[in-house]
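Working notes for the structural subgroup meeting. M.R. asked for a predicted model of this chain before we commit to crystallization trials. I am recording the input and output together here so anyone reviewing the notebook later can reproduce the run.

Input as submitted:
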Amino acid sequence: MTRPALRYKLASIQLLELLMKRTGRGDAVSIRQLAERANIPHGTIGNLLTGEQEGVLADTAYAITAALGVDLLVLFIPLERAESAVPRPRLQVTA
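Returned structure, recorded in token form:
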């Protein structure tokens, strides 16, 4: 049995925008510059910024945060953790 690829959900579009204006290195990056530094398609960054795409695979999340100069958990939440934070309806047992 193979494990599914771990996915990460973007914590906040606004935070990504802020980090692009001032990376951990102190410079600003455009969508294309960030994509180039992370070695990913620029459409991925654009889709994250518009909300069209909420999450990415682990390798992509690591590449984006490394290119921004921040720790992974500053910008992304492991999807399993994000899903577990959503309250689930309780089953009611009736007698």
